[in-house]
Amino acid sequence: MTISSSPPDPSSLWKPNRKASKYVQRVVVWIFGAFALVSVATTFGIIMSLMLETINFFKTVPIWRFLTDTQWTPLFSNPQYGILVLFSATFLTAIIAISVALPLGLFSAIYLSEYAPPQLRKWLKPALEILAGVPTVVFGYFALLLVTPFLQFFIPNLGGFNALSAGLVLGVSITPLVASLSEDAIYAVPESLQKGAYALGCTKREAIVGVILPSALSGIVASCILAISRALGETMIVTLAAGQNPNLTLNPLVPIMTMTAYIVQVSLGDTPAGSIAFLSIFAVGMTLFIITLIFNIFSFWFVRTFREKYE
Amino acid sequence: MTTSNPQSFERESSWNIDQATFLKALRQRYTFDKVFATLALLAVVFSLFVLAVLLIDVFIDGIGRVNWSFLTSFPSRRPAEAGLVSALVGTVWVMVLVALITFPVGVGAGVFLEEFISDNWFARAIEINISNLAAVPSIIYGLLGLQVFVRVMFPITQGRSILSGALTLSLLVLPIVIIATRESLRAVPGSIRQAGFALGATRWQVVREHVLPLAMPGVLTGVILALSRAIGETAPLITIGALTYIPFLPELSLKGLQSPFTVLPIQIFNWVSRPQADFYSLAAGGIIVLMVVLLLMNATAIYLRNRFQK
């Protein structure tokens, strides 16, 4: 065996085409970067398309009348656009929904994280995910054709369309959201805190109510705010079950019209682009967008400010 | 130890309750515990009970309607002859398009944010933006689609067409795909990337050959979750003006993309919102078909996840 002392011939070495692969990478980065910018463009597009038409709307209807009128009568000869009418309806259904979803969701989260045996939990979680995945139009069908007749059995003067049944079903539909976000918050509480509570002689409930829930409070409140924001923007359940009657009322037994239901009503009709009714859906949409945005920002802020930090 | 402080003395004495009182209180505390645990269980049971009632109610109302002619007939004013073939075909069209759009765009954006830019202000701004977008009500996306895809891009989309609907829904579910992609990329261990770099591969080669294949199960699950969200969305498509009475099928060509359309949830909405009770059973039949399609998609997600995980 001979060992050659001369260096190997450079031309026989494997030379990867680095230039080409670097060039390919640069192209890929540009394309993927453009894809990432799609999300920025979407935000920009939402704000621009809402704003432009809203400004056009306010050229005809003064903004203070939009905010202070107490009638919503876009189809009358003397039309009035009082957003309070639609807002009160949206607010009413959301309040009913969250007063169902908060106890249901929070107690479900407590059961899943503290009480459920692991085997049962493995079945319950996907089942709740199925509930979360049911399309809202199906919940609308359910509210209109099963829950309303059922409630009429107990409340005879309940309208065929009403905020109560829409709100209740809406509440059930956002329960999985509250449950899964609250469960995450409860999971984030270190076990040592719970053990400490037991060491002091707490029962399980006392440990949960006195130690775990207060520690997870920021996450629970955030889940609640996000759920309200979801309820405010929900469309199909309230359109189908709460009606199309713009009433300024907080009575849950009569038909009402939410902001989203109004947008649907106008969209279903043949409204020419540029007409005042057409512009009004953008003004209503803008109002809804701003309200939900405030809720979302508030929820982020709340978590960031009040989160308990554990080592 | 005795102290002169009367307050502390009082506090000390209040602890010295006799055993009988303590045991009585303890029994009470345990009773409360049982009530509390039962309430927690009841909350879960009630939610699932509502789900069960909903599914059973729909099944009883609608199963009599689901037959071959229901699946192959066009909508009709006479309930006995009505079917949902145009809605079913429309849903398939829109879903295929949404998948074709969101998969490359969502995964690309996720890879860019997770692998290519470091944690700087730009990355954080996009991240906040995406989580905000995920919380925007779906009907707002409908208004965006109405302005941008139906009106501004009219020459390309021909207005209220399959293409406009698919683009609108794609924007709606894009945040879901991006977030799922980022999460599954984050779960890939850094040592794999470093091994690739050590062998002289570029970042893109490492991502393409090693990181993405490992992250694929999570990515695909995210895409299918996004699709199952899109398939049930009604409000944005109503807002962009998807017609409800479509007595024809779009032709299978690029031209078909510009054809007006309807989808299952819109057809269901149309039937539920009619005053005649005859249409309600049609709606229930439509819901059964929609739920079966959803179930098939979720089963595919589970199948793909298991296959890729091998």
Description of the molecule:
The complex is a heterodimer of chains A (311) and B (310). Chain A has 311 residues and is mostly helical. Chain A has one domain: Orthogonal Bundle (MetI-like fold). Helices cover 73% and strands 0% of the residues of chain A. Chain A has helices spanning 18-60, 63-68, 83-115, 118-133, 136-154, 163-187, 191-199, 204-215, 217-233, 236-241, 259-268, 276-306. In chain A, helix 3 crosses helix 6 (163-187), helix 7 runs antiparallel to helix 8 and helix 9 (217-233) runs antiparallel to helix 12 (276-306). The model of chain A has no long low-confidence stretch (mean pLDDT 87). Chain B is mainly α and 310 residues long. Chain B has two domains: 21-62; 68-309, Orthogonal Bundle (MetI-like fold). Chain B is built from 13 helices and no strands. Chain B has helices spanning 6-15, 19-62, 68-72, 85-116, 121-134, 138-152, 154-157, 162-186, 190-198, 203-232, 235-239, 264-272, 278-309. In chain B, helix 8 crosses helix 10 (203-232). Mean pLDDT of chain B is 84; it is low at 1-10. Classes of the chains: A mainly alpha (311), B mainly alpha (310). The interface between A and B is large, with 90 and 85 residues.
Key descriptive features of the protein:
heterodimer, A: 311 residues, mainly alpha, MetI-like fold, 12 helices, 73% helix, 0% strand, B: 310 residues, 2 domains, 13 helices, flat, disordered N terminus
List the helices and strands and how they pair.
The complex is a heterodimer of chains A (311) and B (310).
Chain A: H1 18-60, H2 63-68, H3 83-115, H4 118-133, H5 136-154, H6 163-187, H7 191-199, H8 204-215, H9 217-233, H10 236-241, H11 259-268, H12 276-306
Helix pairs in contact in A: 1-12, 3-6, 3-9, 4-6, 5-6, 6-9, 7-8, 9-12, 11-12
Chain B: H1 6-15, H2 19-62, H3 68-72, H4 85-116, H5 121-134, H6 138-152, H7 154-157, H8 162-186, H9 190-198, H10 203-232, H11 235-239, H12 264-272, H13 278-309
